[in-house]
Write a structure and sequence with these properties.
four-stranded mixed β-sheet; Trypsin Inhibitor V, Chain A; 34% helix; Phosphorylase Kinase, domain 1; 26 strands; six-stranded antiparallel β-sheet; elongated; Transferase(Phosphotransferase), domain 1; 548 residues; alpha+beta; 22% strand
Length: 548
């Protein structure tokens, strides 16, 4: 497909992504001279009327949305059996990468990003479109810093119609709503639950539920309570925690009723946060001023001469006043010194990710921090063995000087044992592999033994030892290879049935009166010479004779 030009203007330059039913390419619109993203339906699916209908429906629903935080759809078309849509190209990182880079986000930043996503969902929901796959990987940052919600590829119009793929779960299990995990129809509240999971991950650095398999994670969404985010991040503002917990209610009716309602609470939280920041900590300088004002008055009194004998009695009060004055000065100086001794300055935790253990210790100590002697070792796909993956508290966080810091050192990629995917549905197999940190790649071929849409082979085979991020190729059956059906008209019913069963076809018989001998095939469908595949049904009309 690379180099192909669609509609005489859209050139496919490179593949940048692939989903269950389509591929995404970076392309060039030669007419308007701009870079675009081009999404094409996979070749093996263009012969399936259901998939084609789903793809067209996706294009129509997405093209109707126009919002600054939703990726734009420019064009939709079909050429030589290739169904495509042309979209705005967003050349930037996604929210998942942003979270991984920062460890976790400050409450204010997380609330602001969530507000923009909620605005996009409010617009889509008002147009009757439900996303169904809200996750950080589908939230992109453009070069100018704009948030863009992408991939309404498995969206449904909110009219009761569903676009599930062979009843398989579509999307990312870590962001599933409980009703999606149970296989129920997703609604607006399902998108809001997923957005709540994203907000939870932004402020804590982790998703609410994880597990050994996608199925176990899905069941946790249904059955297990959420760990309150303030138990993981003690300085998280309580109002933001309440927003998160409301969005993550198991019962959809207990969540926010709309994206607009979710957005209102986020905006209120941000406004209150700004007000608190503007007010700040009450300044105590006025108290010091009140302390110092009598001091200045006393000084002037001390410097004024008193030669008049009539005021001799008044001088008797000067000494006690001077004693009180100097005692006050001493007490104030002692208080200030004690305050400076007790008050510990703040420091910012430096970013030591990717540094050796020794270098990280040196940098943290230089910043005035104390390193916990108990080093923690974790698996990591990108950081080499022996180097720092992260710190706790996270880099960039402001803490007290001499705060203890935990170091997490990489053990290298985690070894993964490949599962047995034989006879798994394609989407299920991909979810399992992604849940193990492996990268699935689908290949398609005819197979007479395995029904269409299921895995008949995998490379590497089951029980192979791989590192996280390694690729696993799954070979998905297209069903039996098509072949032309023989002419059965004129044959006896027994001979025709025997032929069909040998070819793996299913005979369906109907008897009619005719002038042909009884028991002879008088009509067949598909007609002779038509292409059929194993498992397909064939209709035979059998003569009952004249009936006389």
């Amino acid at each position: 497909m690379i180099g192909k030009i669609l509609a005489g203007r859209y050139e496919l330059l490179e593949k940048v992504g692939e989903g269950g039913m389509a591929r995404v390419y970076r392309g060039r619109d030669h007419l308007l001279r701009r870079t675009v993203a081009i999404k094409t339906l996979k070749d093996q699916m263009t012969g399936d009327a259901d998939f084609v209908r789903r793809f067209r429906r996706e294009a129509q629903s997405a093209a109707g949305l126009s919002h600054p935080h939703i990726v734009n759809i420019y064009d939709v078309g079909e050429e030589d059996g290739t169904y495509y849509m042309v979209m705005e190209y967003v050349d930037g990182k996604n929210l998942k990468q942003h979270i991984r880079e920062k460890g976790r986000l400050p409450a204010g930043e997380a609330a602001a990003l969530t507000s923009r996503i909620a605005e996009a969902l409010a617009h889509a929901h008002a147009a009757g479109v439900i996303h169904r796959d809200i996750k950080p990987q589908n939230i992109l940052f453009s070069r100018d810093g704009q948030i863009k919600v992408v991939d309404f590829g498995i969206a449904i119009a909110a009219d009761g119609s569903t676009l599930t793929c062979s009843d398989n779960i579509i999307g990312s299990v870590y962001y599933f709503s409980p009703e999606q995990a149970k296989g129920s129809l997703a609604g607006k509240q399902s998108d809001l639950y997923s957005l709540g999971v994203i907000l939870y991950e932004m402020v804590t650095g982790q998703v609410p539920f994880s597990g050994e398999s996608p199925v176990s994670v899905a069941m946790k969404h249904v059955q297990e309570p959420i760990t309150a985010p303030r138990r993981l991040v003690s300085d998280l503002p309580e109002p933001l925690e309440r927003i998160i917990l409301k969005a993550l209610q198991k019962d959809p009716s207990a969540r926010y009723h709309s994206a607009g309602e979710f957005l209102d609470d986020l905006n209120l939280f941000q406004q209150q946060g700004i007000a608190r920041a503007d007010t700040g900590t009450p300044i105590k300088a006025d108290e010091d001023t009140r302390v110092m004002k009598p001091v200045r008055g006393d000084t002037k009194e001390k410097e004024r001469p008193a030669p008049d004998p009539e005021k001799a009695r008044q001088r008797g009060w000067v000494v006690p006043l001077l004693i009180i004055f100097f005692l006050s000065i001493a007490l104030l100086a002692g208080f200030l010194a004690l305050r400076d001794f007790i008050r510990v300055p703040d420091v910012t935790v430096p970013d030591v990710r990717g540094q050796s253990h020794a270098e990280a210790v040196r940098i943290l100590k230089a910043a005035g921090l104390v390193i916990n002697q108990e080093v923690r070792y974790i698996f990591d796909e990108t950081i080499p063995t022996g180097y720092v993956v992260k710190t706790d508290p996270f880099q960039g966080r402001v803490v007290r000087k001499n705060r203890s810091v935990d170091l997490y050192i990489s053990k290298g990629p985690q070894e993964v044992i490949t599962p047995d995917l034989y006879l798994r549905a394609e989407t299920e197999a991909r979810i399992i592999l992604e849940g193990l940190g492996l990268k699935p790649k689908s290949e398609y071929a005819y197979n007479d033994e395995v029904e269409e849409g299921k895995v008949f082979k995998q490379l590497p085979a089951k029980d192979a030892r791989l590192a996280g991020g390694d690729e696993v190729v799954i070979f998905v059956s297209l069903g039996g290879r098509p072949f032309p059906i023989a002419t059965l008209v004129g044959q006896t019913v027994d001979k025709a049935k025997s032929y069909l069963e040998e070819q793996g076809l299913k005979p369906r018989l109907r008897y009619e009166e005719s002038d042909q001998p009884a028991g002879v095939v008088i009509t067949q469908f598909p007609e002779p010479g038509s292409s059929v595949k194993r498992g397909q049904s064939v209709d035979l009309v059998i003569s009952k004779g004249t009936g006389g």
